[in-house]
Amino acid sequence: MAPFNRILLCYDATPEGRLALRFGAALAQQLQAETHLLSIFDYTYGSSAFDVLSSMKFEIDEQASQETLREGVDWLRAWGVTATGHCSVGNAIDQISRLADSLKVDLIVIGHHPHGFFARWWSGENHALLLDRVSCGVLFKVDA
Predict the structure, then answer these.
(1) C-beta separation of 36 from 83 below 8 A
(2) N or C: which end of the chain has fewer CB within 10 A?
(3) What is the pTM of this model?
């Protein structure tokens, strides 16, 4: 029995995200794992005031998230991996941990680009928060 039967790939269309997606696809193929792809519109890092323009921006950003999901599913299909797509809106840590728990995944794969030794402490990145909230393995594919 493979150690990872169900994998959640998190994709954001960045170069680091594409690298992690490709890496996750190869892993899913090797393990013949059930594969899920998540694209998130994280509204917590956006506008602070809510008005008509903010509402329009929310709809545009949500559409962009759906397009990112379609792009990721298409990339996976081209690489021979069938994945179930999931698009969600909200805080990335909340959404990743919620879906991982709901699907009972064994592994989460996320892309990451380090900006220096102390950057993760000063930039507000939440990798440690994610690790504290999930009961599965997490693989950060680092693009140096």
Answers:
(1) yes
(2) N
(3) 0.79
d(CA 144, CA 124): 19
22 three-class SS: helix
pLDDT digits 0-9 by tens, 66-78:
999 999 999 999 9
Phi (first) and psi of residue 33, to 5 degrees: -90, 150
How many Å is the Cα radius of gyration of the chain?
15
Q: Could you tell me which residues come within 8 angstroms of residue 101 by beta carbon, excluding any fewer than 6 positions away?
A: 134, 135
pLDDT in tens, 23-33: 999 999 999 99
- Strands (E) in 1-144, as ranges, are 6-10, 34-41, 83-89, 107-112, 137-142
Q: In sequence order, what are the beta bridge partners of 141?
A: 111
